[in-house]
Amino acid sequence: MLRIENLHATVDGKEILKGLSLAINAGEVHAIMGPNGAGKSTLGYTLGGRPGYAVTGGTVTFDGQDLLELAPHERAAAGLFLGFQYPVEIPGISNLQFVREALNSQRRARGQAPLSGGEFLKLARAEAAALGMDAEMLKRPVNVGFSGGEKKRNEMVQMGIIGPKLAILDETDSGLDIDALKAVGEGINRIMRAPDKAVLLITHYQRLLDYVRPDFVHVLEAGRITRTGGPELALQLEREGYAPVAA
Ligand code: ADP
Ligand code: MG
Ligand code: MG
């Protein structure tokens, strides 16, 4: 589904990704862990096409297409969803307006008919209920005045409505209490655990991986993947930190 080869990327002229390679097949969950400043968020932003993140080498294919050729909205329409470490607040636009516009513009780009107001509302309410979010919050401006946990839950509601093929979730677990962590973990499993979908979870902590069991765990250090293993690697990192294992 996603193949990243020897990716180099700069932010404000500074090289942050330095030859990163990673392949994700449909049906798989991959976790990326790594020290602060390693380039984890930069990887997410670069794949999403955020302005200011310049690819200076390497290739990325998504479902056989050259991802780097696509504009950010085309990447979203192709099925890429980015969950942010710090979800943005958008005063003046309700959650419902925001996600309906996102969903329907993606549907139009794929040649699908947009959902009617009634169809969309039904879908949005079902997703909010599944995530344990009060349906009244759908009417509030996007994330404005939401707690950290509510923002992350809201992000999962958005993901459930959009129904992406590949979700890249950047520290979706940071700042969550136990109940919210469980709800978010179950949401990821329910929405994204399917043979035709895949997840890239960026996380500092092993605890989210108790709920969303990864097939592969990677360590990102100084702009490259330096180690890959199974779920046991996350447990080992939690015990021992990121210091390289002595030879
Ligand atoms: P991580 O998510 O792994 O903690 P980031 O991808 O956020 O790391 O950041 C990687 C490196 O890029 C850090 O050293 C950070 O200071 C640097 N960086 C991020 N954004 C900018 C920017 N706008 N200008 C310059 N350096 C940046
Ligand atoms: Mg960080
Ligand atoms: Mg980060």
Automatic annotation (TrEMBL):
Keyword Nucleotide-binding set for record: yes
Top-level lineage group: Bacteria
Keywords, in A-Z order: ATP-binding, Nucleotide-binding
Domain ABC transporter stretches: 2-247
Alphabetized InterPro entries for the sequence: AAA+_ATPase, ABC_transporter-like_ATP-bd, FeS-cluster_ATPase_SufC, P-loop_NTPase
SMART domains reported for this sequence: AAA
Family listed: Belongs to the ABC transporter superfamily. Ycf16 family.
Protein name: Fe-S cluster assembly ATPase SufC
Organism, scientific name: Sphingomonas canadensis
